[in-house]
Design brief:
The complex is a heterodimer of chains A (699) and B (46).
Chain A (H helix, E strand, L loop, with lengths): L4 E7 L5 H9 L16 E6 L5 E6 L11 H11 L9 E7 L3 H12 L5 E6 L4 H4 L1 E3 L1 H8 L2 E4 L8 H9 L17 H10 L5 H9 L9 H7 L7 H26 E3 L7 H9 L4 H42 L4 H18 L2 H17 L1 H15 L7 H6 L4 H6 L7 H10 L8 H12 L4 E2 L2 E2 H27 L20 H35 L3 H5 L1 H8 L7 H14 L2 H13 L6 H10 L5 H11 L8 H7 L12 H13 L4 H11 L3 H25 L1
Parallel strand pairs in A: 1-3, 1-4, 4-5, 5-7
Antiparallel strand pairs in A: 2-3, 6-8, 9-10
Chain B lengths: L1 H25 L20
The structure holds guanosine-5'-triphosphate and magnesium ion (MG).
Magnesium ion binds next to α1 of chain A.
Chain lengths: 699, 46
């Protein structure tokens, strides 16, 4: 077998690197129409003609080699370290035909590192629309490279690109810009000190604030001495370099690219004018949100009810068909009920992801980022924090990892700390079922109260995030600068394949991730609910029969009394009663208490936990919803889930930090237990107080 | 006989469930890989 070619995909954010990666490797990494989707290295294998194989690395987008954020460092560290096992034999710079000028800056920098480089000009399908034409031969000659004009969307040019990669050895490594032209004397000295080193590489090392932990220290330590110039001098030289590069690029593009403005149909400007308008922009966004929430309700109620009743029947069928015994009960009451508590939410979750991914793919999400940026500035956050806050609607974990492209540590920390307030998909099941139980069904102006409540909860989550960011901004004494340029990608018709894949992947991850946890927890809970210590549990039959001897109960009623006596004295009943005093003031009973505790593993577990507890010892075929609606408040009588306790629960889930996996990621990203512990205690404490006040006021 | 089998099944299920939870939340013998996160990669997102 011949040696694999290491190929690195490099380019500005949102130019389609990951799309090229997917086209080459046949993998399905996440693609989205806003900058900063990829924050970590991803790898894959591409089969080239004649049995050659290439090891492809997809990298986070970077504007230039003058790094400012963590994810950009990934690129620079790789390119400066020849010993890295992933050090590329070939750099494929992916650019976007509509932003060629800006994209070429990075290209010329990489070329100057003398790494064989191919220029990919992606999104060629947009050329006609924008009136762009290119003289590829001329560009190849001026840029001293090979160019692949491709469109991953139309699947054009991919084979030609593969051909070029196969023949990478024939590429010229001649630089675009002579580094010493930046400052003759300074570079002359450098050359004398390090005769064997590439000047431009040295220059990069000198000017970076990057932590070169992984690069080979020996060479670069010596470079320290060359930081003779003051920081401002170096900055000035860096600017000079950029200007020189742009001069070269402008020169080249003047001949190599023609843009016929007349044939460019610019819908984009008109759309942007409305969608990012100070008033209309927000109204339209509000309307879109309302439509989404209403649709989540309207479209998913039928499949949801169907799944709910199917699971109830399945559980009943299991009980009747399998031989009687403990394991049959575990299956019917524990496992099937518990899993039902997650499966019934598949329709809603899928719809939520569908809408999110359409918004992302169409390019509208970037306009939302722009709109939010205006609001966030008042609270001390920039638009860069908006991306994590918005992607937090799916899950806080990738959102927190996406903060890596925020340069300012203070801002990054604040964003990490407040992101868990965003309503993640794991809260959705809890919200949906409780809203269905306690909010009446009526409609106002075609919008149901239930959908409005759901939207309100999302807004509360976002408000809590922004509010606490504002407070943190005042409290934290960390100095750091920050700037943010919102980049607006073009509007695109969402590609069915991308949307479908995202929905499928995310829903699968939701169901299987949560499914495994709920399966394990249901088994444990069922066990704890079906066994108990001491007389009270083991002799429940006799105790209850004697107690009700004088009353004329039917066999069924007596059986129910026995089962509920058993549950109260089972292990879980005892534990539940122990925590009950703490949650009673919020309007909950011990069963809800247990569900809340198990929700700290993962919020989605809430409904499944209740379903398991409620079904232990029950013989009726009942859906989860009906079982919850039938629960009676043990002290006050009346339904347990009423308006007051329902709102209290909703608010508790809106604010509490109930996700161990998120805490673990925060620990990893901040490198200390301090911040996740603050999150856990402060958020959950706040949730408790708000829920308490809500219940006491409303009851 | 039947009862014994059912009990054995119950306790093995319980054991497996506990093992899973302990390994997920409390202590897992091997360090998690530092590979990229995304999809079902054991980065803990569900
Ligand atoms: N019209 C058109 N759109 C494309 C093409 N290739 C990719 N896109 C779209 O461009 C957007 C960005 O694609 P990604 O592959 O996520 O870009 P990326 O460079 O990996 O982005 P980051 O990881 O955020 O830096 C997506 O909405 C894609 O659907 C193309 O050939 N034509
Ligand atoms: Mg990407």
């Amino acid at each position: 077998m011949s040696k694999q070619i290491n190929v690195a995909l490099i380019g500005n954010p949102n130019t389609g690197k990951t799309s090229v990666f997917n086209a080459l490797t046949g993998l399905n990494q996440k693609v989205g129409n806003y900058p900063g989707i990829t924050v970590e290295k991803k790898e894959g294998i591409c089969k080239l003609p004649r049995g050659v194989k290439a090891h492809i690395i997809d990298l986070p987008g970077t504007y230039s080699l003058n790094a400012s954020s963590l994810d950009e460092n990934v690129v620079i560290e790789l390119l400066l370290n020849k010993n890295d096992k992933d050090y590329p034999d070939l750099a494929v710079v992916v650019s976007d035909v509509e932003n060629l000028k800006r994209n070429l800056l990075l290209f010329t920098q990489i070329k100057d590192l003398k790494i064989p480089t191919i220029l990919v000009i992606n999104m060629s399908d947009r050329m006609a629309y924008k009136g762009i034409s290119l003289d590829i031969d001329y560009l190849e000659q001026e840029l001293k490279t090979k160019i692949a004009l491709i469109s991953t969307r139309k699947n054009k040019g991919i084979n030609e690109l593969k051909e070029l990669i196969t023949h990478y050895k024939e590429l010229s490594t001649e630089p675009c810009l002579d580094a010493s032209s930046i400052d003759e004397s300074y570079f002359e000295n450098l050359r004398k000190a390090f005769p064997n080193q590439l000047l431009y590489k040295l220059w990069l090392v000198i000017t970076q604030d990057v932590n070169f932990g992984k690069t080979d220290r020996k060479t670069y330590d010596a470079v320290e001495d060359f930081k003779t110039k003051s920081k401002t001098d170096l900055k000035r030289l860096q600017q000079k370099e950029t200007i020189k590069r742009y001069q070269f690029i402008n020169e080249t593009l003047k001949k190599g690219q023609t843009i016929d403005l007349n044939s460019a149909k610019d819908l984009r400007i008109k759309l942007d004018r409305i969608l990012t308008h100070k008033v209309w922009g927000y109204l339209i966004f509000g309307a879109i949100l309302l439509t989404i929430f209403q649709a989540i309700y309207d479209w998913s109620s039928i499949p949801m009810d169907f799944i709910d009743s199917s699971f109830a029947s399945l559980s009943e069928w299991t009980k009747n068909t399998l031989p009687e015994g403990a394991f049959t009960n575990l299956l019917a009451e524990g496992i099937i009920s518990g899993l039902g508590g997650i499966v019934i939410f598949i329709p809603q979750i899928a719809f939520l992801f569908l809408f999110i991914s359409i918004l992302e793919e169409s390019g509208y999400m970037s306009r939302v980022v722009f709109l939010m940026d205006r609001i966030m500035r008042r609270f001390g956050l920039s638009g860069k924090s908006v991306v994590p806050l918005i992607s937090g609607t799916a899950c806080a974990i990738p959102a927190i990892m996406a903060t890596r492209n925020i340069e300012s540590w203070k801002e990054r920390l604040i964003t990490i700390l407040v992101t868990p307030f965003t309503t993640c998909s794991a809260r959705l099941p809890v919200y949906l079922i409780i809203i269905a139980l306690v909010i009446p069904e009526g409609r106002i102006l075609g919008l149901s109260y239930q959908a409005l409540t759901l939207m309100l909860l999302y807004l509360i989550g976002f408000g809590a995030a922004v509010g606490s960011a504002w407070i943190l901004n005042k409290i934290l004494k960390i100095k750091s600068k920050s700037f943010f340029v919102v980049e607006m990608p073009n509007y695109k018709l969402p590609l069915f394949k991308n949307v479908a894949l995202t929905v499928l992947e995310k829903t699968k991850a939701f169901v299987f991730g949560a499914g495994k946890i709920i399966l394990a927890i249901s088994i444990v809970l069922w066990f704890l609910a079906s066994y108990g210590p001491g007389d009270n549990f083991n002799n429940a039959d006799t105790i209850v029969t004697e107690q009700y001897a004088s009353e004329n109960l039917t066999e069924d009623e007596l059986h129910q009394k026995i089962e509920s006596h058993k549950l109260e004295h089972s292990f879980i009943g005892i534990a539940g009663h122990a925590i009950e005093p703490a949650i009673r003031p919020l309007g909950y009973d011990w069963k809800i208490g247990i569900a809340i505790v198990s929700s700290f593993a993962a919020r989605e577990v809430f409904v499944g936990t209740l379903a398991t507890i409620y079904s232990v010892g029950s013989d009726e075929e009942e859906t989860i919803k009906n079982r919850m609606a039938g629960e009676v408040n043990p002290i006050l009588g009346g339904p347990l889930f009423n308006f007051a306790s329902g709102i209290s629960l909703l608010l508790f889930y809106a604010f509490a930090m109930q996700c161990m996996s998120t805490l673990a990621v925060v620990k990893k990203e901040t490198n200390s237990w301090k911040w996740p512990m603050y999150q856990l205690v402060i958020m959950s404490g706040f949730a408790y107080i708000v829920a308490l006040v809500a219940y006491q006021v409303l009851k | 006989m039947n009862t014994i089998i059912q009990n054995i099944l119950v306790f093995s299920a319980l054991g497996l469930a506990l093992l899973f939870l302990v390994r997920k939340y409390i202590w897992s013998p091997k360090k998690k890989s530092t590979k990229a996160c995304g999809g079902d990669d054991g980065c803990g997102c569900h």
